[in-house]
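# step 3/5: fold
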Amino acid sequence: MTKWRLFAEVPERAPPLFHAQDSQGEVILLDPALPPGENWVWIEVSTDRAQPLFILWSDSAHGDRRPDRYYVPTDAEDGFATELPSYAGHWRRHEDLAAPLRPFEPPDDPAPPWPVPDPSWPDRAAFLAQLDRVEATAYEVAYRGFSNCRLCGQRNGCAGLRLGSWEWPEGYRHYIADHGVRPEAEFAAFVAARAR
């Protein structure tokens, strides 16, 4: 993956350095100056031909107290790496819908899964106890609007939780506790490792 260097810091409410015309997707920018959980950013395609790609990090979650940070691709070894985020509990909108749920997913990405109860799963209580410990240390991201449970229609939260390279909705617990939905194996292993 491409590395990124800090190109400029711009005071709040200043005109943007670059204008985005499209997004290449969300990544986690591994710049230690960015707080964990707030370092999830989009690689933007610019209208500026001299600078076709950029990343903008904005402190909008905290009322623009810190300057916006613009990053551009670099070949330098000391550039900041990125990693791809992983998502658990992000379901498609309808059971038979094939389109991606998140707008930044490329069209050829598979549609998110549909929650399927697994009443035979014996480790549900143990996993929920681990999930409680992990969620106590996760970073909360507020989103606009509420999500409803795909299985029973209950209002199920409006925030996401981030830890490491994983994000899951605050209502994910409901699917596991109330419907017996089994988490993806990779997420279950992540939770088990972090809950120790």
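# step 4/5: annotate
The beta strands are 3-10, 20-29, 40-46, 53-57, 68-74, 82-83, 86-87, 139-142, 159-163, 166-169.
# step 5/5: archive (pending)
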